[in-house]
Write a structure and sequence with these properties.
Blueprint lengths: L1 E7 L2 H16 L5 E2 L6 E9 L3 H8 L7 E11 L2 E6 L3 H16 L12 E6 L16 E5 L1 E10 L2 E11 L7
Antiparallel strand pairs: 1-3, 1-8, 2-6, 4-5, 4-7, 5-6, 8-9
The structure holds adenosine-2'-monophosphate.
């Protein structure tokens, strides 16, 4: 099964992302828009792996305190468009610790550098630089858990299913 570890977005942040997507649609930017229920921040992409219970056991050992993230900009990696987050050392540390825990137990994952982003549009042929200004209303979200996700290909696009979640450990030293 195809697995990844992510922070799913909460409803208010999803609404702010939708505001950005609507502005792009109004400028006739076409492509595969990420549906609200799929919006997330990937911490580690595992890919095909047969033992999700082992992955859960491993990531449940990662301790972190809840923290806030703030989405504040729009960017593009080639044909993939994203909204980005302001610098957040706690988020970087969480991604690092998740990846470290996976590596220690020999669970494979994509080693590409962690670049926190929320994918909002894929397969777009457009260039952000050619658009009229797009406004990203800064939006904050409290991160108090992260999840092991399964990705399957549905008839109408990707379906992401949460297989388990790891809560923040209030009051416990990370
Ligand atoms: P994204 O983080 O840029 O959105 C499930 O496929 C999720 O894992 C997607 O959100 C995807 O991109 C992310 N991901 C990270 N590395 C990936 C890789 N090498 N292949 C596929 N998806 C990857």
């Amino acid at each position: 099964m195809r697995l990844f570890i992510a922070i799913p977005l909460k409803n208010e942040m999803k609404e702010r992302v939708k505001d950005v997507q609507v502005q792009l649609l109004r400028q006739h930017v076409h492509g595969n828009y990420t549906p609200s229920e799929n919006l997330h921040i990937t911490l580690a992409f595992i890919g095909e792996y047969g033992d999700p219970d082992q992955v859960l056991d491993v990531i449940e050992m990662v301790r972190f305190r809840p923290f806030t993230i703030t989405m504040d900009r729009l960017g593009q990696f080639d044909r993939l468009w994203w909204t980005g987050l302001s610098r957040c050392p706690e988020l970087d540390t969480l991604a690092h610790n998740v990846r470290y825990a996976l590596a220690e137990k020999g669970i494979p994952f994509d080693r590409k550098r962690f670049q926190p982003h929320i994918t909002i549009l894929r397969k777009s042929e457009y260039d952000l630089g050619d658009l009229k200004p797009v406004f990203v209303t800064p939006a904050s979200m409290w991160v108090d858990s992260f999840s092991l996700m399964q990705s399957t290909r549905g008839k109408n696009g990707m379906i992401y299913t949460e297989l388990g979640s790891v809560p923040a450990s209030e009051g416990v030293d990370p």
